[in-house]
Specification:
By secondary structure, the chain is α/β, with parallel strands linked by helices. The chain is 39% helix and 16% strand. The strands form three sheets. An eight-stranded parallel beta barrel has the order 1-2-3-4-6-8-9-12. It has a two-stranded antiparallel sheet with strand order 5-7. Helix 3 packs across helix 4 and helix 4 packs across helix 5. The longest helix has 18 residues. Bound molecules: fe (iii) ion (FE) (2 copies) and zinc ion.
């Protein structure tokens, strides 16, 4: 079965997201751990998390994906920004420990003129401080489009973070189809070559989730503007090849396309119909 969901708002709590996902035909979902552009967070509701766990078990859901706020930047040169990143990631990991199987995805960060090597060291340093061995959640580094001074636009940079961190195998990767395409990897025309390169540099066993998005911009544009499935420069045929690829087809797929809920339901139905069971 295709494991697919979309990004949902967490404003009504955990169980509400589970019910909403099921109503859209999804069997997983992604959510922000807190305000994506700020950092404020509601008190943790343990009973609500337990209710979601029971609901997901009853419905046979695939593991859910939490997304850290965009403002989390451990690679910043500003000590206050780094301090926010450390505290936020630690607190989110402590909460997610109550949602078995959940994974936490984050944007590695932007080095802002310090250079990618300094960024890699700062990111690995945060992981070594806050991602302590007793925390059960798998942390994923997201592949980025490489705009500005973003770290993670090349597979080599993600590999460097993994190598520099003691977290080792506990770190995985979430591949965003819009980001890698905008970053210059030809997933539309040469999917096998891109996956071969990923395997050589990072290892396909480290790939744990896919953000399935079309792109508003041409390959290598370094832009990061998501488009609806089949309406962008990646195209429906290529996205259908991705969900059916033997190396990818069992992973959970998360839509982050510019849609309201009805649009997500349509895309989920379209992709389920195109999945070769
Ligand atoms: Fe993201
Ligand atoms: Fe993404
Ligand atoms: Zn994006």
């Amino acid at each position: 079965m295709l494991n697919i969901g979309c990004h949902l708002s967490c404003s009504n709590g955990y169980l509400a997201m589970g019910r909403q996902a099921a109503g859209l035909g999804a069997n997983t979902f992604q959510f922000f751990t807190r305000n994506p552009r700020g950092g404020s967070v509601k008190p943790f509701d343990r009973a609500d998390a337990d209710a979601l766990n029971a609901f997901m078990q009853e419905q046979g859901f695939a593991p859910v994906l939490a997304h850290a706020p965009y403002t989390l930047n451990a690679a910043s040169g500003d000590a206050r920004v780094r301090d926010f990143a450390f505290r936020t990631m630690r607190e989110d990991l402590e909460r997610l420990a109550h949602i078995p199987g959940a994974m936490l995805n984050f944007h590695p960060g932007s080095h802002v003129r310090q250079g990618a090597d300094a960024g890699v060291r700062l990111i690995a340093g945060m992981l070594d401080t806050v991602y302590t061995p007793e925390l059960p959640t798998q942390v994923l580094l997201e592949t980025m489009a490489g705009k500005g001074s973003e770290v993670g636009g090349r597979f080599e940079e993600l590999r460097s973070i993994m190598d520099a961190s003691k977290a080792g195998d506990r770190l995985g990767v979430c591949l965003d189809t819009c980001h890698v395409h905008d970053g210059g990897y030809d997933i539309a025309g040469h999917l096998d070559d891109v996956l071969g390169e990923f395997d050589r540099i990072i290892g396909l066993s480290r790939l744990k989730a896919i953000h399935l998005n079309d792109s508003k911009n041409p390959i290598a544009s370094r832009k990061d503007r998501h488009e609806k499935i089949g309406r962008g420069s990646i195209g429906l045929d290529a996205l259908v090849r991705i969900i059916n690829h033997p190396a990818l087809r069992d992973l959970p797929f998360f839509l982050e396309t510019p849609n309201e809920l009805d649009g997500y339901a349509e895309e989920i139905a379209l992709l389920r119909a195109a999945y070769r069971g």
